[in-house]
Amino acid sequence: MPALVQTSIARKWPLIAVASLLALGAVLWGARPAASRDEVTALLTTSKTILGQTISYPTKGPAKITAAIVVMQPGEETGWHTHDVPLFGYILEGEVTVDYGAQGTRVYRAGDAVMEAIDIAHNGRNSGKGIARLLAVFMGAEGVANTVMVAPAR
Q: Which terminus, N or C, of the chain has the lesser number of Cβ atoms within 10 Å?
């Protein structure tokens, strides 16, 4: 090989090496599986409430979805109430015990998903040592109360 060509290649060697590494990196990066957009973790699939009632949606007005984060201090209670609309709940943190009167009690902990009872009086209490946080998604309708306070069940 002529000396001029050898000198030219020697000068370009760092550039060739960097370009080769970048090309290899691009090939390897492209070969990695992309994050799946189809990866879904189902939290709950049901047509019944926690007490076995068939879920039915209110038809008294246009649909209205309300989502809220409920935070309860240790020992705090919701007070006795009912829901006239379907309510999906997901416990984000802590522990909540719900008293359904004659229907018994249920304990929900972080990671639990529930379709709450409809038209059944119940009282929730933070039964854990720290705060409890839950996501509540009401599937209601305009003009229909999501929650109605009632006298204690018994």
A: N
The answer to whether residue 35 sits within a structural domain is: no
Q: Show the tokens assigned to 140.
A: 């209601």
How far CA 13 is from CA of 2, 28, 45, in Å, comes to 17, 22, 60
List the domain range (segments joined by +) for residue 112. Answer: 63-149
Q: Look up the CATH number of the domain holding residue 116.
A: 2.60.120.10
Per-residue pLDDT of the chain (154 residues; tens, 9 = 90+): 555 444 444 454 444 444 444 444 444 445 555 666 778 999 999 999 999 999 999 888 999 999 999 999 999 999 999 999 999 999 999 999 999 999 999 999 999 999 999 999 999 999 999 999 999 999 999 999 999 999 997 6
Domain count, the chain: 1
